[in-house]
Design goal:
Length: about 250
């Protein structure tokens, strides 16, 4: 079931929205295209799987990897101990993402997490978030300017410094600084106790983490899926993820 043309099947979490008055779920093409270009087959996962445990288990039994995407929504703060309300919530995504993370950790399914996905991995493993980075002393404004064209919103915005010896540095074959885009209001306050810090921005904000006791679980705060062929470092991240998914497929589908 998990083998389609001998390529790994990657579950991709979706986001809730309203389109032409209809409740809908969606995922940006850029995430699907990044998986396809790296050699995987994406499968969008609806929030309704949480209402049918057998369906969620069946999906997990067929998947060779999980991609947690970025989103305009934010995790509801009660998940990390705050009583504040969240005006841009997506509770269905919260529930599904946390279930996928816990299942992937238990089953050793490879995980790649981007932007909101990084924050989901942090919260699911016991970490906390800053809700508005631009209000935190010493931290820069990591938000994009929504009035600009997309190409400018996703342009390189600041450097990150990979940690020597980490998974990110290994995938990049370098621990030299790299430029990344920046389109997020929230960010890591404290990482989950299971997580390893993989990179920081110049202001000290943690921009990438991994699960060191997992075959492959990498989360980045930036958007490597944007224009996947440029820069080359984005290709390396997705290639490493799909390589891990291929290994998982071979080990579990024999």
């Amino acid at each position: 079931m998990g083998i389609i043309f001998n390529k790994p099947l990657i579950g991709v979490v979706m986001c809730q929205m309203v389109y032409a008055g209809h409740p809908s779920q969606m995922v940006h093409n850029k995430y699907l295209d990044a998986i396809l270009s790296a050699g995987g087959v994406p499968l969008a996962l609806p929030h309704g799987l949480m209402h049918y445990p057998d369906g969620l288990d069946a999906a997990l039994a067929s998947l060779d990897g999980i991609l947690l995407t970025g989103s305009p929504s934010n995790i509801e703060p009660f998940h990390y101990g705050l009583a504040d309300t969240e005006p841009h919530a997506d509770p269905g995504r919260d529930r599904l993402a946390f279930a996928l993370i816990h299942a992937a950790i238990a089953r050793k399914i490879p995980i790649m997490a981007i932007c909101r996905g990084l924050q989901e991995l942090v919260v699911a493993t016991g970490g906390t978030l800053h809700r508005q980075l631009h209000l935190q002393p010493g931290l820069q404004d990591h938000r994009e300017n929504g009035a600009l064209p997309l190409a400018e919103q996703y342009a390189p915005a600041h450097d990150v410094q990979p940690e020597p010896g980490g998974l990110l540095a290994s995938l990049l074959n370098s621990s030299e600084k790299l430029q990344v885009n920046s389109l997020h209001q929230q960010g890591i306050r404290t990482p989950g106790p299971q997580l390893r810090i993989e990179a920081r921005a110049d202001d000290g904000l943690i921009e990438a983490v991994s699960l060191p006791d997992h075959p492959f679980a990498l989360a980045v705060q930036w958007h490597p899926e944007w224009q996947i062929d440029n820069p080359a470092q984005s290709q390396r991240l997705f290639a490493g993820f799909i390589d891990a998914c291929n290994r998982y497929q071979k080990e579990t589908r024999r």
